[in-house]
Design a protein that fits this description.
Blueprint: H1 3-14, E1 49-53, H2 59-66, E2 70-75, H3 78-88, E3 94-97, H4 100-106, E4 111-117, H5 126-136, E5 137-148, E6 161-167, E7 173-179, H6 183-192, E8 196-203, E9 214-220
């Protein structure tokens, strides 16, 4: 079973996918209240066309919908999409089962923002996913994504392509491949995709942690 379908199944075994109220703010880390919220997407979100890549259980997608955006949450896990829809379909958010690059490649509507929170960006070969984002973004559209900070253990990894072991609540383990690149490498990849970097945030959690745990990058389509 795919890691994310297994994760969804484990979560559903612990708690039914009941209707939920959307969270009061957008979170870019795995702990609430750290760093900026949806304001880094720029001003009023009313009517903005936004896609979240790797939406998981839909929390951030739902927050953006209640802020007035026309938002689609995309995930390659059918189980995660079922969870997200059960939780938040009442917000007006749309949830689709698809891979990030396939979804971006088959649409033609220009997007005002693309976001990924520990999602598809970082788990897909960078030139493919960033190029797909750039092609769909409208002029001055925003790309914002967060991922595990490459310096989270105190040193940058020897290779930008790494494998992590993830343990699910039921005790089973899965191996996940990710691109663990330093900020300069991400900036170069974004520039090659035709995007201009507008912000690089090194987020710490908890507050007394010696090393940052989350890397948050924003870019804009010129």
């Amino acid at each position: 079973m795919d890691l994310w379908d297994a994760h969804a199944a484990a979560q559903l075994a612990q708690r039914p996918a009941d209707r939920l109220q959307p969270p009061p703010r957008m979170e870019w880390t795995q702990r609430p209240g750290i760093g900026p919220g949806a304001e880094i997407l720029g001003g009023d979100l009313t009517g903005r066309r936004i896609v979240e890549l790797g939406c998981g259980a839909g929390h951030n997608t739902a927050h953006l919908a209640t802020a007035g955006a026309t938002v689609v949450g995309v995930d390659r896990s059918a189980g995660q999409i079922r969870r997200a829809a059960a939780h938040y379909e009442h917000t007006g958010a749309q949830f689709l089962h698809a891979s990030a690059t396939v979804h971006l490649g088959r649409g033609t509507e220009r997007l005002d923002a693309v976001v990924s929170v520990f999602g598809a960006i970082g788990m897909t070969e960078p030139s493919r996913i960033l190029g797909a984002c750039s092609r769909r973004l409208a002029r001055r559209g925003v790309l914002a994504f967060s991922l595990p900070h490459p310096q989270r253990t105190g040193a940058f990894p020897a290779s930008p392509r790494t494998r992590d072991t993830v343990t699910l609540p039921d005790g089973t383990t899965h191996t996940v491949e990710r691109w663990d690149m330093d900020p300069a490498a991400w900036s170069r990849a974004l520039n090659r995709a035709g995007l201009l970097v507008t912000g690089v945030h090194h987020l710490h959690a908890p507050t007394d942690a010696r090393w940052p745990t989350t890397l948050l990058i924003t870019a804009r389509k010129p």
